[in-house]
Fold:
Amino acid sequence: MKIYADNAATTQMSRTAIDAMTDCMASYFGNPSSLYTIGQKAKEKLEEARAEIAQLINAKPGEIFFTSGGSEADNQAILSAAEIGKRKGKTHIISTSIEHHAVLHTLKKLEKQGFEVTLLPVGESGIVSVDEVKNAIRDDTCLVTVMTVNNEIGTIQPITEIGAVCRERGVLFHTDAVQAVGHLPIDVEAMHIDMLSASAHKFHGPKGVGFLYAKKGVRLSNLIEGGAQERGKRGGTENLPGITAMAAALKESVEKMDTVAERLTPIRDYLIKGLSKIPHSALNGDRNARVCNNVNFCFEGIEGESLLILLDQKGISASSGSACTSGSLDPSHVLLAIGRVHDVAHGSLRLSLGEDATLEEADYIISAVSEVVAYLRGFSPIWRDLTTGKKEFIL
Ligand SMILES: *Cc1c(COP(=O)(O)O)cnc(C)c1O
Structure:
């Protein structure tokens, strides 16, 4: 059996997105900045995509800025808010300890420039408390940035409530919604969002394209200087095939969202139930406030990397920590933030199901993981210490 269960890392492009992309490449090769008809046809296509995307998150077309993906959108949003803040003498930023590195590393850079960053804890559930956000806001706070859905443990953050608090206090609110757009309903007005980042390859669009929503009146700074594209906020000839495909992918994902959630939730729950039967294991992140395709477990006494390699041999593509941290020996900052100790955090497995996942596949995953975990524990020195009482079990 071949099972791709790493949709939080990237998704397969949909047929609709591929068709939109190839049609655009074949029929709209002009430069949207050119004044003749071929260029203007491309420009129309670009603005069509912008209007479509805007409508799908209840924004206005003029509030959508195309980027090279989620990371660029995060960088631009945060650096812009910092620039706005600095002009007013406000240099305090609030975020959480479980953000994506595109956010955390940008905040680190700002700290070196004199900004003060408060990273709120999330507790065992992996959900930030609205009250803690409220209490952390100061007179000199220029930005609150909290992700909508965590990419590792799938937890859904109370974005609408945080947005309301920020709006009331007059603080800019950005959300990295890369794992949410196309998966959960997004309404930037109702959710009081000032800036939002999204990435096409997380909702069956192509890689290397995304967008930043910035509410009218929020002045963006440029990361890329160049021509007057994207209303002067992002130089460079637009990635029209990518943008067109992104709009098509998002439209389809939003249309399918409810049926997918209805279908996947019981399969996710079945997987959680099955994997919980493995001794000394634990689910990571809140049991209920999580996206419908995310299952993340820790298994004591094993290494996540070995688990992944053996699962791959059984045809299962999964992940341990995030794709960006795998390859390094540090355990996931998200698992540490929810209170997992180093040894336990090392033995983690993230399964992010595809839309067409089935119960039969879930059964196959449960038996494959159970088998591989038992096998690895058979020659793990940590497991031997645990079973002989030299070390105490944590899970
Ligand atoms: C994937 C991801 C990103 C980065 O998006 P890219 O388009 O790959 O740059 C940022 N934030 C989160 C939460 C993600 O899952």
About this structure: Residues 69-71, 74, 100, 102, 147, 151, 176, 178-179, 199, 202, 210 surround pyridoxal-5'-phosphate (CB under 6 Å). The chain is about 40% helix and 15% strand. The chain has a mean pLDDT of 96.
